[in-house]
């Protein structure tokens, strides 16, 4: 039976006793805050950044009433990892599934959380996410069910990087001629808290309140633990640019969940995590209880010597919460050593007893070459030499209402000239084209996507790209170094116990192979989760089963050609 049909039937069969409606009312505002001791305008939800944690149980309905009080900015909120079965219009992706929420207006999202696990929500309009509009979604199992591992307490942490300039300033620089790169972040935050060295400001400010280490906002994040107890620590990354490593001094981390799926447990000292990923690790407070320990995050895959590590404190009760560890923070992994990062990626397998077997073969293969290019003198990121641009009318509306002139009807390429393209060098022809065309997938077919990395426009440079797929989970069939070989590498796919995820890295000069079922009617973004990269065109859109999509709510309309369709 089709997965879509099974899920709908399953959702309908959930009894009213088991499933609840959980309502949230959010006010989105701009406020001055200093999460790393540097005061700047940030976006908050009910005065918080990170925003309130949504806690629910599997099959619950979530209703979030969002009021946009940003004065001059639109917004949209994406529910990252929630597949939106039957509600593709509430995926929260501006330009793909909805028109943006205008300043001074209220928009209501309503959806079912159909799977337990650790998920996220965040802004999906422009580059707003990095200004603080993000938070966690934690979905538990129904009453009476339990995970295949035990723990005493459940905690969650969001890791982030942090810039002092505005996203508007960054966007203007990225779109300018000459190109102005955003640079490396000024700080790393652990659950919304970091520490910037105010004395390092290039131009000391006459405003003593601009940067002040006495601000309570930037006191280190502290997690209090009871000696001998085991904690499920849900770790998520909402970085706008950086790949990170995370560690707790002197403690092993046992990985048990990734993006909502149970993992065959394995132990790490450093957890490598990429933007948009979520993990659960088990950590036991089994060290000397008379002292506290460092929690640290560090940038990997990029040289960022001026970005200090994120620091928090693992506090053993009853030690004083403000007692610093007696040691220096642990050393960071070597930033450009890809070997341990590749090894962790390859170690993540589905847990025995929870394996969802992928289809043995696919119906379609799409190869996506990730490159950096130029269009009319502007620096862009491209996929198969095509840089993505958003249409004025969201795809879901255009497709459902048959607005054929709302976007380019020519689909993007299914691949690139792999026989002649050298992924290890700067290309002599740096030019690309732009398009808002989409990939149309036959409904309920199996699709393979090969993400192929390559050299940027800088010699000897290839970046890590975390790719996130909306509306689906996919099987991770394999990773590799160099150029993907469809004859040699496809034969080595893991079809026995591949993990399912919604976000996955493609490593420098490497490839990542995915497989998913096109079984969720809608229009779904698939893009690099680095804010500046997606802004610069590193993404695609998949459309499937549009004829099965229900009546679109008028609340998602009001922009582009949908203005005439808006019926409040």
Could you write a compact summary of the structure shown?
It contains 5 helices and 32 strands. With 568 residues, it is mainly β. A 6-stranded mixed β-sheet has the order 10-9-12-17-14-15, with no helix packed on it. It has a 6-stranded mixed β-sheet with strand order 21-20-25-30-27-28.
Account of the 3D structure:
With 568 residues, the protein is mainly β. 7% of the residues lie in helices and 36% in strands. The chain is built from five helices and 32 strands. Strands 10-9-12-17-14-15 form a six-stranded mixed sheet, with no helix packed on it. The N terminus is likely disordered.
Spatially, the strands of the biggest sheet line up as 10-9-12-17-14-15
Main sheet attributes: strand count, strand direction, barrel closure: 6 strands, mixed
Radius of gyration: 23 Å
- Specify the overall morphology: globular
Distance between the termini: 38 Å
The helix tally amounts to 5
Helicity, as a percent range: under 10%
% residues in beta strands: 35-45%
Q: Based on the structure, what is the oligomeric state of the protein chains?
A: single chain
Mean pLDDT: 94
